[in-house]
Design goal:
Elements lengths: L1 E10 L2 E12 L4 E5 L4 H4 L1 H11 L8 E7 L11 H11 L14 E3 L2 E2 L5 E2 L4 H6 L7 E5 L3 H5 L4 E5 L2 H8 L6 E2 L23 H13 L3 E4 L6 H7 L9 H13 L14 E2 L7 H5 E2 L4 E2 L1 H4 L4 E4 L7 H5 L2 H6 L1 E5 L4 E5 L3 E6 L18 H9 L3 H5 L3 E4 L5 H6 L6 H19 L12 H6 L6 H12 L3 H18 L6 H8 L15
Parallel strand pairs: 3-4, 5-8, 8-9, 11-18, 11-19, 12-15, 15-18
Antiparallel strand pairs: 1-2, 2-4, 6-7, 9-10, 13-14, 16-17
Helix pairs in contact: 2-3, 7-17, 7-20, 17-20, 19-21, 20-21
Length: about 500
């Protein structure tokens, strides 16, 4: 007998419909799965056999063939357990002489425990998003009910295989997935900017970065406050919108990092160690998974000790910094993950960290300094909008410096600038950093006298065409922070100051 059920799989973070076909034929006991399954899907046999028997059913001792179609899409994960088990019950006549009518318009997702309980799985939200607007129903594990409820798809929560089988035959009921409380922004405590004394130039740069979603790199000696500033940076960013929260939750769901099925309501702050592999940072692996750059989507990626990251990891940032996505290609599949993150990188000026320090002597040779800085290539620096130099704070200055502005005050200015951008782009691109081509020409017209500033920057300081684009975007953000309708010459002059790593003059003497 043949039975057909519907389920879903993931390709990247997008759900795809899958047909689970189970055919039981006379012959020696055998169990075969076809349709490009991975190891977890093949192992479903042992879980399905135990779950069926422990749910009070006899498992057929016949030849069983399971086909997961379409065959060209790789099937991975344990969520195929439930549809396969139900298919076996239907094909063996345990659910009636004919397959129940409810099987036709219902999608089933769930991993089976050996006792027949249905365990939660990763990726439920993005899978269900593929059904939005279709009018179909999905049965999901109870542990994923809160996550499923926000998908906009009619979902039922199932706790056991027997309970689901009873619902299919009309002998039992499943409860609808309960929608969680209205979307609220979490107010987890974040260290405040007022705790950082001095470094006014760096604070100004981070304010601009938050207002225009510009990537930033900070260069300074140990103890200058680079990490301290970076960890307070998230407090300047605006609250996540519902759409941003949904996008980020999809990525965390695919990665199995979802928090009890709730929406991610805080902007991610990811801080990977510099020993991380390029696959873990960018994404990939034999079975592609989102990397740190995607887990930081709509949030902050802080890369401390930037030159200490491996060369492949650093160079792998080129695509996400430019296109805000990561494409992972393998022989059998190619998947894309969004990666619209704000990168904050920090590095020392030299290997020992004390080049240019007012009181500590640098022990590095010019060649060592050059090799250290060369670890961060020109193309990567070109893609970072703001370059910020931090200097060591002397004790006398530190003691005399007043307390800085609170994060809330800076965040208020940032939010006003972001509201200006939202009105300007009218639902299109979300920030000044994402402007390109026509948008750049339309919204970044140069005032009188500014062209000469850019010409000097390009000729004397060796700026690339991409650097000039960055300067225009930064100038637009500075104007937005001031509430100015048009870019002014002083905005361009300030923006040029944030490209210090492009300047040939910054190279150590003798190189």
């Amino acid at each position: 007998m043949l039975s057909k059920l519907r389920t879903l799989c993931l390709k990247g973070i997008d759900g795809r419909e899958v047909s689970a076909e189970v055919y039981i034929a006379p012959g020696l006991p055998a169990y075969t799965v076809v349709g490009l399954p991975d190891a977890a899907v093949k192992e479903a046999k042992d879980r399905v056999v135990a779950a069926v028997r422990n749910s009070g059913y006899d498992f057929p001792s016949k030849r069983i063939t399971v086909n997961l179609a379409p065959a060209e899409i790789k099937k991975s994960g344990t969520h195929f357990d439930l549809p396969i088990a139900l298919g076996v019950l239907a094909a063996s006549g345990k659910l009636g002489k004919k397959p129940p009518a409810r099987m036709e318009d219902t999608f089933f997702i769930g991993e089976l425990a050996l006792d027949g309980a249905i365990r939660p799985v990763a990726g439920v939200l993005p899978m269900l998003m593929a059904l939005k607007g279709s009018g179909k129903t999905a049965v999901v594990p109870v542990g994923n009910s809160a996550e499923a409820a926000v998908s906009g798809v009619a979902c039922l929560a199932a706790a056991t295989l027997k309970e689901t089988a009873a619902w299919l035959t009309g002998e039992g009921e499943l409860k609808p997935c309960a929608r969680p409380a209205e979307h609220k922004i979490s107010s987890a405590p974040v260290p405040d900017f007022s705790e950082v004394k001095g470094q006014a130039f760096a604070k100004r740069a981070l304010e601009i970065a938050a207002a225009g979603f510009h990537n930033v790199i900070m260069v300074g000696p140990p103890g200058a406050g680079k990490s301290m500033l970076a960890r307070r940076f998230a407090a300047l960013l605006p609250p996540m919108t519902f759409d941003e929260s949904l996008e980020t939750t999809k990525l965390y769901s695919v990665s199995g990092l979802g928090a009890a099925g709730r929406l991610v309501s805080e902007r991610p702050f990811r801080e990977p160690h510099h020993t991380i592999s390029d696959a873990a940072l960018i994404g990939g692996g034999s079975s592609p998974r989102p990397g740190e750059v995607s887990l930081a989507h709509n949030g902050v990626l802080f890369l401390d000790e930037f030159p200490e990251f491996s060369r492949p990891a650093i160079e792998g940032l080129r695509e996400p910094l430019e296109a805000w996505r990561v494409t992972v290609s393998r022989v059998k599949e190619s998947v894309a993950y969004p990666a619209r993150f704000l990168m904050v990188a920090a590095m020392n000026p030299c290997p020992c960290g004390y080049l240019g320090h007012p009181t500590r002597e640098c022990a590095c040779t010019p060649l060592q300094v050059h090799k250290y800085r060369a670890k961060v290539s020109g193309p990567i620096l070109d893609r970072i909008d703001l370059h910020v130099q931090l200097s060591a704070v002397k004790y006398a200055d530190w003691e005399a410096l007043p307390k800085g502005e609170p994060s809330a005050v800076i965040a208020e200015r940032v939010l006003k600038a972001i509201e200006i951008q939202r009105k300007r782009f009218n639902g299109g691109i979300r920030a000044n950093a994402f402007m390109a081509g026509a948008e750049l020409r339309r919204h970044c017209a140069l005032p009188e006298g500014a062209s000469a500033v850019l010409e000097t920057a390009m000729n004397r300081l060796g700026f690339s065409a991409r650097s000039l684009d960055k300067i225009l975007k930064i100038s637009r953000t500075i104007a937005d922070l001031e509430g100015a309708a048009a870019i002014k010459r002083e905005h361009v002059i300030e923006a040029v100051q944030y490209r210090m790593l492009d300047k040939a003059a910054e190279l150590p003497a003798g190189i």
